[in-house]
Amino acid sequence: MNSTIRVVIAEDDVQIAEIQKRFLERIEGFELVGVAHGLDEARDLVDVLKPELLLLDVHFPKGNGLELLRYIRSEDSSTDVILITAARETDTLRAALRGGIFDYILKPLVFERLKDALSNYATHLNKLHAMESLVQVDVDQFTPSNINTPPVQTALHLPKGIDALTLGKVIEVINEKKEPLNAEDVGKEINASRTTARRYLEYLVSRGELMAEVSYGSVGRPERRYLNNIK
Q1: pLDDT in tens, 101-128
Q2: Among 156, 161, 160, CA closest to 197
Q3: Hey, how many other C-beta atoms are within 10 angstroms of the C-beta on 10?
Q4: Nearest residue to 55 (alpha-carbon basis) of 139, 131, 127, 113
Q5: At what angle are helices 39-49 and 65-74 packed, to 10 degrees?
Q6: Fewer CB within 10 Å, N- or C-terminus of the chain?
Q7: Model-level pTM greater than 0.70?
Q8: Cα 168 from chain centroid?
């Protein structure tokens, strides 16, 4: 499959939709054919334009993106869905997986994460179109038992000095704690040095997944504390 993949964006926040639009324009092989800021408009665009892919938010002022996902599946639509959302509830993820989403991306959206997702999607479509008959090894590429494959592939692109296992531990610590943490706090939680923890924390800040704030300790020395950068 060498044709351009047509995409619709469904996002109620105008600025975030514009960011997604600009990111999409930088990725070869994809064409934006419509932007919707409400679910009714998004449904109309999917029904009329029949895009290959929908980039869908979950929370809208009127309704929930999962409702549109269920509608798309009930209509036996060929449009695939990638959720881009601030929803971190496991129930939302479970419902999305049951609805057959291709990927689930947490806000704030990072260009490289979207690029990886779209690259994986294009590869997925190419493989489906190239297969004339199925053998088990082909089927295994598309079944839920291989749901961990994309993160492993993404890990191959991590910079030197950042490994996927430690990165996962750092993200888990930050997600579990409600208050901002410094590098020493995180280092203790993952059984690593303050320097190592800071390297991973600053990497996540550079990707836009964490934000850093400066605070002053008891002796007046400034220190950086890190917390989730959630919309």
Answers
A1: 999 999 888 898 999 999 989 988 887 7
A2: 161
A3: 27
A4: 113
A5: 30
A6: C
A7: no
A8: 15
